[in-house]
Amino acid sequence: MLLATIAFYLFSTVLIAAALLVVSARNPVHSVLFLILAFFNAAALFVLLGAEFLAMVLIVVYVGAVAVLFLFVVMMLDIDFAELRRDALSYVPIGLAVGAVLLGELVLVGGSWAIAPGATGVAANPTPAGVTNTEALGRILYTTYVHVFQEAGMVLLVAMIGAIVLTLRHRAGVKRQNAAAQIGRTRKQAVELRKVRPGEGL
After folding, report:
1. How far is it, in rounded angstroms, from Cα 58 to Cα 55?
2. Rounded to whole angstroms, how far apart are CA atoms 7 and 44?
3. Residues 19, 38: contact at Cβ < 8 Å?
4. Least confident range of 83-87, 107-111, 136-140
């Protein structure tokens, strides 16, 4: 029990420090690396809570895909960070206003939050006997919250289509695939018969 408590405080401290460094680092590459560190420590906290499936999803999806994608995008894009920092002070009032609104909302939520009756007993035994954490999560996700799960998938699909549409550019001299023209090709257009004589090539 003592080892679990020490591990919890250790991972929590590193997680909070990494989260602060994500938003305070001047170099975007360093911010992404601190973000990866924060994800790993959050996954470790999930393991301590017995949610090993969520820990693996956090590592595989966020660390293996999202954070690495951010890292490559930041490193590949030719961004003049000096010019961005030059105009950063002009956004301070807007940032402070948005931060104040978010802080007020968090205070309202925290002030009205209360523990439900019997919640402590449920938290002590989060899953029924003989049911793994992953199976219990799947039962809840695909039964009680199946519509919310499908709606989240639709939101991600729309976001993906929007990103493709925004980044799709028609450039002259670049060949593009035309599925209708490919499907509509006839045998006469696709096949050409030639008589090759001995000693001659095409």
Report:
1. 5
2. 9
3. yes
4. 83-87
Both structure tokens of 39: 């994800």
Q: Buried (b) or exposed (e) across 10-36, using 16+ Cβ within 10 A?
A: ebeeebeebbebbeeeeebeebbbbbb
CA 86 to chain centre: 29
The vertex-178 CA angle with 175 and 184, nearest 5°, equals: 135
Q: What is the pTM of this model?
A: 0.56
Q: How many residues does the chain have?
A: 202
CA–CA separation, 41 vs 35, rounded Å? 10
Backbone angles phi, psi at 131, to 5 degrees: -115, 125
Token pair 């035309």: residue = 178
Question: Within a 10 A sphere around the Cβ of 148, how many other Cβ atoms?
Answer: 10
